[in-house]
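re: ur question from the group chat, yeah i did fold both. here u go
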Amino acid sequence: MLTTTTFPITYPATFSSSSTTSITSTTTTTTCPSTLGRTRTRTLTTTLRASAATRTNLLRVHASQSSSPMIEKERPETNRPLTFLRESDGQSPASDLGNNSVRARFETMIREAQDAVCAAIEAVDGGGKFKEDVWSRPGGGGGISRVLQDGAVWEKAGVNVSVVYGVMPPEAYRAAKPAGSEEKPGPVPFFAAGISSVLHPKNPFAPTLHFNYRYFETDAPKDTPGAPRQWWFGGGTDLTPAYIFEEDVQHFHSVQKRACDKFDSSFYPRFKKWCDDYFYIKHRGERRGLGGIFFDDLNDCDQEMLLSFATECANSVVPAYIPIIEKRKDLPFTDQHKAWQQLRRGRYVEFNLVYDRGTTFGLKTGGRIESILVSLPLTARWEYDHKPEKGSEEWKLLDACINPREWVQ
């Protein structure tokens, strides 16, 4: 779906992926190697997840047919709470819900990342300040939405975090059961937390950045006690310039690769290709930008390792992006350069409204609208049948979006 660009709607993004998870009723063993020498073997008695496309379609059907949203309506808050977790999640002595739970530590990570990115953005802008909205939901959860608009450097910069509780429709759970199962479970409670950001600079030589990191859990269905809890991670960071500066793109991808290589040498090539495939605008035959990394439904490695990996990726955003902005934000540009940037912004809008799973799912399920649409730029442009001149700088960018390149080895 936060993938939203999943802004504070991190939950939908985790329902979908370009991969398919097999369904089995037998015991299976999975192993994840890493360059740190970590190996994890885990046993699953029944895989509860079906293909991403099936899960997404079922959720969309449910959203269109249901008379009530899958999540509660948010309410504004005047102060930031210490945590958005339900009391049982943050204080229970149970090993999976205590202060050291993945839920609690992931929330801490995304809130610290939000503070760090916002501080870096304000420092570069030199005057603009983020507007902050804090919101919560009666049944637990909430989020912090921060947006900086019309600054000296940033046309629009949004950095949002959320902690969300909801209910997965029974159709999605039943579809993930083995074929022929007669079991008819009730709604499946879920938990999701994430950070999502889109940063649109004013200068056409300064690239747009998107990043999103999220964690998702489903609990046992209410009428199926004892079923195993499922969890997974998703996210990524990607760069969308209007003009190519080779050294900038190489720097950006190098930082992504270093973050990946700390955990598994296969991560960067795997997630780089996944990113190129995900951000594909089918009706245009081109990618939204020059990629980065993207992953979803990730749970085939040790949970602690994946939490550390997501943390490393989130902490890599500032060093990957801010040096590029500092080099490009003050370059002189012409009206032609600005017009091309606006045309590429139009592509950004097309992808987010037509294909982005976080945006489309959030609009159908009653998510917080201002957070869902924070990814959209203040301005964009569409021209009839526009084609850049072959060999021009604009054409070079378009060619790289049509034919993805390997930026680092």
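okk and heres the other one u asked abt
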Amino acid sequence: MAGHVFSALSVLVLASGILAEKWWENTVIYQVYPLSFYDSNGDGIGDLRGIEEKASYLSELGVGAVWLNPFYKSPKVDNGYDISDFRDIDPQYGTMDDFERMLRTFRDKYGIEIIIDFVPNHTSDQHEWFKKSVKKEGKYTDYYIWKDPIGWENGKPIPPNKWDLFQFWLEKGVKGFRIDAVPFIFEDEDLTDEAFYGEETQSLPEAYELVEDMRAFVDEYGEEHNVDIMLMTEACVKPDMVLKYFGTPESPGAHIPSISCSSLISGNKRTLVGLITLLPAIWEV
């Protein structure tokens, strides 16, 4: 490994204790932060070709899916979560051809699926949508919360792009999404000041409904194309709030509402015990 950047990253093991029905229900998901994973060309920056080079190694570990943190084009003010183009690869990581070849190698040669971060809460201020929204150009005026949604359907605000970004990456062969910053997507109508972090504006009811809408979209896509799509959410909130992201049998939400890894790494006993206490209810859902 001399001269290359390589870092061991978090591993999430899923085991429900029952016969698996979906590919993700009894598998190992390995998180990869592209910037620091493996550098294939010696420039000191991890890249997509470097990830592909380690496919056999990950297969030997028994990994069933790789979750990639953002690799999209970005000015990197927020570690790549400030995305300026959701349909393009940041040049420091490679090209779209590199991504598609990497995905094929993992899927076709090793049977490893790819999950990617999806960031619906915000974009970079360099994103085309934001620039046009600031200028109030046509439909882009309502792509951001300046005032009102673009319209309403069955009592719910209409997403500006009808989830076409999901479809874009699903058609590339992606088999899952980890939805970033879900608890923060909706704001209190009065823009109330926080008395304490997250008490007023975190995990509002609309956030749960949004996840249910996303689940309905990926489930419908999966049925139409005979594939199983996994949906994870970042939910760095109290255990009872995490539970709600599963949804209900009638309106299912995330398959896996993940919590902040830092909560567990830092030894946050209250968070961990709270989640374990709720596990019976989780498996009932």
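fwiw on the second one: The chain has ten helices and eleven strands. Residues 1-19, 261-267 have pLDDT under 50 and may be disordered. idk if thats what u expected
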